[in-house]
Amino acid sequence: MADSATSRNDLRKQSLASNRGTWGAPNLNEAFDSIDESLDGYVEIDVSGGSNVTLTTTDYASNEARQRILKFTGTMTASISVIVPDVEKWYIIWDASTRAGYTLTFKNSSGTGVTPTNGQREIVICDASEVYKVESGNTLSSIGAPTADVDLAGYKITTLGSPSVATDAASKGYVDATIASAAILPLTSDWGNVTTGTTVQLKRDTTGNIASYTGSAGEVVVDTSRNSLKVQDGSTAGGHEIVPQGSMDAVAITGGTVSGVTINNSTVGATTPATGVFTTARVTAGQIVNEQTGTTYTLVLADAGKLIECNNGSPFTLTVPLNSSVAIPVGSQITVVQTGAGQVTFSAAGGVTLNSRGGATKTFAQYSIAVLYKQATDTWILGGDVRT
Asked: Are residues 131 and 3 in the same domain?
């Protein structure tokens, strides 16, 4: 009577009265070796190329399907399957292959199988009709709480529900929606500390872009061209400017009386508006001084209404910029004094027209005073103690 093999691990079952003289060695020893393989055996399975790999199932000898641990190696050139027998068995699989963008499937011949996690070691079971990962279908609530930090190796936790208590996790979408609908932005307790506090950045853009913007009522926008704030009312394009100290341009007075007002340390007496100018005024303080000790200088927005002292022993060049670069308001006056020995030359940037009597573009000598007046967008008039 012939020997037969067990259905799962192909162990030899010796028939009655068979193998006389060889029952112990080699046959019994062969069975022990096969049992040892089935409990803790390890084999590397080469999955290189693009063909399916069917594990060997040789009876009464070492085979691949009997091993407990299967390590997949090699570089794949197509999506393939590693196929195990249709018998009940569990494996530890270790996918160390190079996928190269392809899919590796671990399955039995009659099932659809599972996809191993590349670079990971996993337990899978076969019930003779299908292969399953052991953790598949389990829930986190069935797993004990961790006792240390959990590293997700760059992976995300997805499809979170809305949190209900302070210790619940929240999705990015929930946080974004909560912040967007908040009436007051929550800040950390040290938000006012300039070195450790929370940084709050407002919407910001140039004067030209903000001019057509109508924001929500109470919204504040930073004008990066003028370094000022624009308060929005929900209906006025551009909003309403909060002028920084020392940077007031022109004030339109349409009615009433201005009296006892101090502007830039200058007292304005009882006046009545008339065509945009004060009918009477008394100035009791001088201009803000911007001293320049180099040899070149280009006007900036804050120079409107100021006095610029050019104090250097070498020739000095003062450049009047394009309005598109520096939007100094039309009507501004800038006083320039040559306090050093170096003569001041007024240079117009490309596209700027600088008009003067006789084409004068230079100060006469030390202590000469000149005045620049912005007549139009890119048109200036130079007057005072100047020459060609």
From this structure: yes
